[in-house]
Specification:
Chain lengths: 364, 233
């Protein structure tokens, strides 16, 4: 879909090229992350694809035509572009911002209105925001509008330069999850720049790790990069906690969870104590016909007739099949129960994950 | 100070304002007001027509900024009545003789503000606009100019207010708008027209300034959050 062939960019007045000789093949529907240390040429590479920066050597093929042979203005209308601080037009309402490219390519009003309705649905934006100006939105909302605007004319290719870097970590996490959902549906060809290795691991199908001068050190799926780093540069770049980072790639739903200690609220207190002692956690989950009510510990059962008599306490955090093992691990180490409880829709009890269970995946 | 006490001595015995004189000269008030407005309005308009393309050029080709600023700065330093007298042999007692200095003086402030306005557009916004596929011209007219409007209008306000003051000097060649009253008052040691001329000039300047401020609010609703829009929900 996109192929860079021996691409070079030398800025005038600089000795070494910003990007020396970069060859990269990106498939249709693929999400590729460009990562690497500051100044290694990520932004330069990205901007050469839509010709915001003109390469000084090599070819860039988009759908097998050289972008250098196309009118740059028309080329850009067919490529979604998202930047860190969104670049929303401050004097245009959100509606007008989103319709920028559709208007440039002369869609009619009905088609634009229909597309906007679709986009606010996809991006979970409030229709009320449409008539506001960018300054009247939160950072997270602006970021979503920035991505929605880039997608407005339904371009097959999207370029994103640190799209989620300007928002706080919690909002960033949500935007990343939303990105994954949307990308699973739309299957665009996406090239994005990030200097957050975890973000690249989480979002990309393949990551291109660049060294200074745009030298490609490794171009492989995150799983491979973490398991078999090509060289010392990559090893150092992805960091010491490669094993931990791999956990981000494994979903709770992908592995077998432990059953964990469980009783029904109608079970006798003696029965509950027996289950607790057998499991050795000091507590037991109370589950009523599949629904998780909470947990009770051993001494709370003192003087009670049934397991349901003391009010079960809620777990501090729950994980679902869609969460990663990394999130599960976080939940284990921060909870008082020394285990992450796994539930599905409607608090349906699935089991638990313990430190031992998760570390098995690190060494696997 | 000697001059001033002489003037004061000459005015002695005269009431500050003779209202009847004003009533008798309402026609003059009207026609000179019109002259004042037309002179000011046309010269600032022409000034903007010259300064705007210069500023666009300068924002695109930064190296032109020093020479352009230097050239219009020189014009700015010519004292106003020297300017008028230099032009007299060429353009005579016409409107043009007054108009040229007025235009020349307005260019500097209009050029500077237009350039500052264009420069105030954030790099991100410009980059996103180009990245979406707006042409050079579309970026200028749809992004840079609208965003520069508040700063440009701020420049127009200053240019208008100073032009209104300067027009009075043109009374020397009979084209001074309200300045004609001031000159008459000084020539005849008669305070009524003098005060009338000053008050009307100041009033006109304040009025023009307020109108332009209102215009700016109207055309840039995004810069006054929660401002002029009514949102149907
Ligand atoms: N317009 C320019 N003129 C000269 N040199 C430039 C220009 N833009 C970038 N460079 C240089 O080219 C190199 C690559 O810059 P680039 O912006 O592509 O890096 P990056 O990987 O995106 O870095 P970061 O993570 O900090 O954003 C840097 O050494 C930078 O200083
Ligand atoms: Mg960069």
């Amino acid at each position: 879909m996109i192929s860079l062939e021996h691409v070079e960019k030398r800025y005038s007045g600089t000795a070494a090229p910003a990007v020396g000789d970069l060859t990269l093949e990106i498939g249709e529907g693929e999400t590729v992350a460009l990562v690497g240390p500051s100044g290694c040429g990520k932004t330069t590479t990205l901007k050469m694809i839509n010709r915001l920066i003109e390469p000084t050597g090599g070819r860039i093929l988009l759908d097998s035509t050289n972008v250098l042979d196309q009118d740059p203005v028309l080329l850009r209308r067919g490529i979604g572009y998202v930047i860190q601080h969104t670049g929303l037009l401050p004097h245009r309402t959100i509606r007008q911002n989103i319709s920028t490219v559709p208007r440039l390519v002369a869609w009619n009003d009905e088609r634009i209105a229909a597309r906007i309705a679709e986009l606010i649905e996809i991006f979970d934006l409030d229709a009320e925001l449409l008539d506001r100006y960018p300054a009247e939105l939160s950072g997270g909302q602006r970021q979503r509008v920035g991505v929605a605007r880039a997608l407005a004319a339904d371009p097959p290719v999207m370029l994103m330069d640190e799209p989620f870097a300007a928002v706080d970590p919690i909002v960033r996490g949500r935007l990343q999850d939303q990105f994954l959902d949307i990308q699973a549906r739309l299957r665009k060809t996406i090239v994005f720049v990030t200097h957050d290795v975890d973000e690249a691991i989480k979002l990309s199908d393949r990551m291109a790790i660049l060294n200074v001068g745009g030298v490609l050190e490794q171009f492989a799926p995150p799983e491979t990069v973490l398991r078999e780093p090509e060289n010392d540069f990559v090893r150092e770049f992805v960091g010491a906690e490669r094993g931990l980072k791999r956990l981000a790639l494994i979903k709770v739903g992908d592995i077998e969870v432990d059953d964990g200690p469980v009783v029904s609220p109608s079970a006798s207190a003696d029965e509950a104590r027996r289950v607790i002692d057998e499991a050795g956690f000091g507590w037991v989950s109370v589950v009523d016909e599949g629904e998780l009510l909470g947990w009770v510990d051993r001494h709370e059962l003192e003087g009670c007739a049934t397991a349901g008599e003391p009010t079960p306490r809620p777990f501090s955090a729950y994980v679902t099949a869609r969460d990663s093992l990394r999130q599960a691990l976080d939940s284990v180490v921060t909870s008082r129960t020394a285990a992450a409880v796994v539930v599905s829709e409607g608090q349906h009890y699935r089991g638990i994950l313990t430190l031992e269970r998760i570390s098995k995946e690190i060494v696997a | 100070m000697g001059m001033l006490s002489l003037v004061v001595a000459q005015f002695e015995g005269e009431p500050i304002v003779r209202w009847q004189w004003i009533v008798d000269h309402l026609d003059d008030v009207w026609s000179r007001g019109l002259q004042h407005v037309v002179l000011t309005g046309s010269s600032v308009t022409i000034g903007l027509a010259i300064a705007f393309p210069l500023a666009v050029l300068a924002s695109r080709h930064r190296w032109t900024i020093p020479p352009v600023t230097w050239a219009i700065g020189i014009l700015y330093t010519i004292p106003s009545f020297a300017f008028i007298f230099l032009l007299l042999p060429i353009t005579g007692l016409s409107q043009t003789t007054v108009g040229i200095p007025l235009v020349a003086y307005s260019i500097l402030i209009l050029f500077r503000n237009t350039l500052a306005g264009l420069d105030s557009v954030e790099a991100d916004v410009r980059e996103a606009a180009i990245g979406m596929g707006l042409s050079r011209r579309q970026v200028l007219w749809r992004v840079e100019v609208p965003l520069a409007v508040p700063v440009i209008i701020a420049g127009v306000r200053i240019a208008i207010v100073s032009a209104i003051g300067l027009v009075t000097i043109a009374a020397l060649i009979g084209r001074g708008g309200f300045g004609q009253f001031i000159l008459l008052g000084l020539d005849t040691f008669f305070p009524t027209p003098l005060l009338l001329g000053v008050v009307l000039s100041v009033a006109l300047a304040i009025l023009a300034d307020l109108l332009l401020l209102g215009l700016q609010r109207l055309v840039t609703p995004w810069s006054t959050p929660g401002g002029t829009r009514t949102v149907a929900t």
